[in-house]
Structures are given as structure tokens and as C-alpha cells.
């Protein structure tokens, strides 16, 4: 009787496996499992390649696939969506305001700065035609100073500070993108501060560039474009009320030389606290806002009174009969305080600038006090110069 041909080594390997020195048959399910795993990996890879390609195609301005429009919610996810929220559903871990927050809730005030007030009061009383309102809070000690800080005043360009906060709040909620482009239309072109007004109507700018110009060079046209992107006056005023601001309101586009847009020193300290304390923004957006504020080019008001080693992020305002500056200051000794000063005077009175600088200088000298060794700083360390 003929003997069956012996199986080759490769055939044996297909049917058996060596385990602990013993030969056992390969389980039937292992082949199915490995095959399914390979098929799944291939499918995921093809999906990533397809989605990336479609996103690149869509980013080039295509908004239709054949005759069918592509809605924003139907666009495939991209790698950026895992790093930055694109929709409201992706922001569940980002702090959101649950109710209007008063300044007292946000910054528990412990004791008034009576010694500082005694130094500042004579300065504000030298000229009855030059009046000052001031509000300051030391974030580390809880000390505060209120010198007419709740009085309603024309906001001038300081109104751009809460607009910047509102914009980055919308960014965290997926309502806007930093790289989206805004078109400068004729109704939004404004005189006064800024150079965007000299560009041709129809010029486009990225949202980040527009927001940066609004603060760094106080561009009025950029401000009007941001205001429009946020939904207009009524929308932002409702937002300000939700934050707990008492007197801050936008009534007209910039430059608003008559001063119809209003705020108060206390409201702007409130706004700065929402930024510095991280109440409304993600960590990344907070870093962006502070970076932009620290890049402000006008250094003639609050910064002129600061000492060596101090860092300030701030927004100025000036419409001739009122000047103001609101900022978050990190002192050379590691303290952090919030301060807003407004000075009302006759038109372009140089005494107004001098008084604001003096008030800033006295405040900094008082608040730049060395902490006891080992004392923690609740305000934390300043964020990086530029977000990654």
C-alpha cells in the first residue's frame, strides 16, 4: 500500500502552534479574529485618508458635493477638532456661566485699602475740573479700593475689552474660528484709531488678526467687524448682563465720539476678573486674551506708573473729554492686581494724563509689596507669552 506524502513544514505550521513545548492545533477563532482586526485597521486608515482629503477640498471653498450642499454640521471631523472645540457639543469641560455673577461673588473683598485711598484722595482733589473714578482689587490679599468706581462713564475704546472676552467665549463654544475670514464692508469702516480703514472695502482679515488689531492698536474698524460677528449690539449687551456687568452697554458703532457707549471702573475690573480667574474661558483662550492685552502698544497711561519688572495686560480709551485704562498687573514681587481708572476733563487736557499716571504709580507702589516666604499666590503665575 502506498504511503501518503508527508506534509510540508509550512503546512504543519499552518495547522499547529508550539506552546510550552507542546504542539496544539490553532484555534479556529484566531484566524477569524486576526482577519477582522486587519480589516478594521484598513477601514480606519481609509476613513482617515478620505476625511482628511475631503477637509482639504472643503477648505478650498467647496461647499457642494455635486448638486448637494454640504452643511457645517455634516463636515467630517479633522485633527484640529481634537485640539480645539468646533461645536458647542465639544465644550462640555469648558467653564460656562450658569448665572449672573456679581463682583462680590467673583472677588470676595476683605478690607478696603484705606492707606492707599488716603494717598490718592489729595491728588484727585487738586483740580475740580479734572475728576477721577477708580476701582482696584488685589487678587492675593482681597483688599480693594473703590473711589467712585460704580459711576457710569463713557467707555471710549475700553468697550473693546468686554468685546474681546465675548469673542473668545464664542470661540470656546465653537461659534467662531480664529482662522475664519471677516470682510470689511463700507458701513463698518470707521475713522480714528487703526489702519484697517485705509484698506479697500471688501478686504478680508482673519478673525484673530481683526481681534488683535482691535486691542493692540485700538482699531475702530476692527472693533465694528468683531461686533458684527458677535451678532450686534443687542446680543453683546445681553451677554454683558449675563456676566453681571451693571453699566456696560454698546449703543453705537465706533468711534462713538459722543460717548454713548458706557461702562464703569468696577465693571471693567469685573471683566478683567472673569478673564484672570478663568471663569468664562478655557485655559488656552485665557492665555490668548492675556497675550493680546499684553501686546497693547499705547503705554502712556497705566503702564507709565508701573515699576521695573512689572507686566501689564490692558486696554486704553480716549475720546478727548475722557481717558481710561483697565489692566491686570503682575508686580515685580509676584503680586497680581486688577485696576481701572477713568479721568474726565476738558478736551485733551494734559492734566488728565498726568493724574492717571500718578494714580497708577501710587497704586503700584502700594501693591508691590513682598509676600511672606512660602505664601502661595492664588492668582497663579503669568501664562506663556504666546499660546501654543
Structure description:
The chain is α+β, with helices and mostly antiparallel strands. The protein has 2 domains: 30-83, no CATH class; 105-367, Beta-lactamase (3-Layer(aba) Sandwich). It contains 11 helices and 13 strands. It has a 5-stranded antiparallel beta sheet with strand order 6-5-13-12-11, with helices on both faces. A two-stranded antiparallel sheet has the order 1-2. A hairpin with a 2-residue loop joins β1 and β2. α4 runs antiparallel to α11, α5 packs across α7 (220-230) and α6 crosses α7. The N and C termini lie far apart (80 Å). Mean pLDDT is 83; it is low at 14-21, 65-93 and 373-385.
Question: What is the gist of this entry?
Answer:
InterPro entries: Beta-lactam/transpept-like (IPR012338), Beta-lactam_cat (IPR045155), Beta-lactam_class-A (IPR000871). With 388 residues, the protein is α+β, with helices and mostly antiparallel strands.
Low-confidence stretches: 14-21, 65-93, 373-385
Determine the CATH topology of the largest domain.
Beta-lactamase
Please state the average pLDDT score: 83
By CATH's scheme, which homologous superfamily of the largest domain applies? DD-peptidase/beta-lactamase superfamily
Sketch the topology as an H/E string, one letter per element: HEEHEEHHEEEHEEHHHEHHEEEH
Distance between the terminal alpha carbons, to the nearest Å?
Answer: 80 Å
**Helix and strand composition category:** alpha+beta
Number of structurally distinct domains: 2
Q: Can you tell me the overall shape?
A: globular
CATH hierarchy class name of the largest domain: Alpha Beta
Gyration radius from CA atoms, angstroms = 30 Å
Strand content: 15-25%
Count of DSSP strands: 13
Q: Describe the main β-sheet briefly.
A: 5 strands, antiparallel
Helix run count: 11
Strand order of the largest sheet: 6-5-13-12-11
The CATH architecture classification of the largest domain is 3-Layer(aba) Sandwich
Domain Beta-lactamase class A catalytic: 134-342
Protein name: Beta-lactamase
Organism: Gloeomargarita lithophora Alchichica-D10
InterPro entries: Beta-lactam/transpept-like, Beta-lactam_cat, Beta-lactam_class-A
